[in-house]
Amino acid sequence: MAPRKSAKSPYSFPNPIDNDLLVGHTDVWNNFMNAWHARDTHPMHPVWMLTGPRGIGKATLAYKIAKNVYGNVGDFFIIDLAHNLDGDGNPYPKGKSISVKTVTTMIERMQLSAMSGGWRVIIIDSVDELTLSASNALLKMLEEPPAHTLFLLVVHKLANVLPTIRSRARVEKMRPLTISQLRELCAHFMGDAEISTETLRLANGSFGKIANLKTLGGDEIYEDIIETLENPHSTASDLMTIAKQIAPDPAIYGILLDAIAHFGLAEIYPAATHAITDIERLHLEPEIGIFKILNDIKKCLQTPTAI
């Protein structure tokens, strides 16, 4: 059966800077607020590292903290891919790495900014995306952080951060969201949507993943994958049709690994993970690589289990 073509998603999700709804993470919020309120008697740590899986609300929490400290989001210093600069200081919001020029320009702007007795806030979303040179430039700033300056560092994988940067930060580990917390966010942002338990399970505690699945139609494509692979009469043409649906959207490639997990095929999981990485890293024809993964799953399902 040929997979259905998903319609464009009717949902839109705010960027963390515009999102005032934080669900979960009250422990980390309370940790910060306790330190903030006691700052006159117990100097607070200037560098807070918010770490955890993608899509659980780390950046949303960072902006909530920043708004509480400064009160005017327009005065924050923001380092992210959307504000990326090329070597000449021109906007360069391309690629997957934050340039050293972006960091050094922020440092120069901050040093020139007038202090009015308040706190300056620097948000980096995310440290994982800094180039090595950018990380080293940040490290120099963190070695002697300016007075009344708060660094909020968003980190998706702590292992990707230079140990020297990590050692200068207060690390707050944020947990994946619970099913009930995911349902609360779904009800707020997608009140009329039917979010299946399977979609919630696939999210692994990340509302960001649910947003991607709904925006790109990944949840419907996932259902097609399972139905097609379970159908003994499905053909290579059916698999290629699905591969062509997935190929344009790297954000949903993870549903291939979810399908492998669904069928309990742990033996092909590592190879599929490497194949997905190679598609992006080596700029391979995505539909061919995705078709191969789907075909490998199909072959495993057709192989008789030894008794």
Q: Would you write up a description of this structure?
A:
With 307 residues, the protein is an alpha/beta fold. The chain has 13 helices and 5 strands. The chain has helices at residues 26-37, 58-70, 100-112, 132-143, 163-166, 179-189, 197-202, 207-216, 218-230, 236-246, 254-262, 269-281, 286-302, and strands spanning 47-51, 77-80, 120-125, 149-155, 170-173. It has a 5-stranded parallel sheet, with helices on both faces. The longest helix is centred in the C-terminal third of the chain and has 17 residues, at 286-302. The chain is globular, with a radius of gyration of 22 Å.
Secondary structure: elements and pairs:
Layout lengths: L25 H12 L9 E5 L6 H13 L6 E4 L19 H13 L7 E6 L6 H12 L5 E7 L7 H4 L3 E4 L5 H11 L7 H6 L4 H10 L1 H13 L5 H11 L7 H9 L6 H13 L4 H17 L5
Parallel strand pairs: 1-4, 1-5, 2-3, 3-4
Helix pairs in contact: 3-4, 9-10, 9-11, 10-13, 11-12, 12-13
What descriptive keywords fit this protein?
5 strands; alpha/beta; Rossmann fold; five-stranded parallel β-sheet; 8% strand; single chain; 307 residues
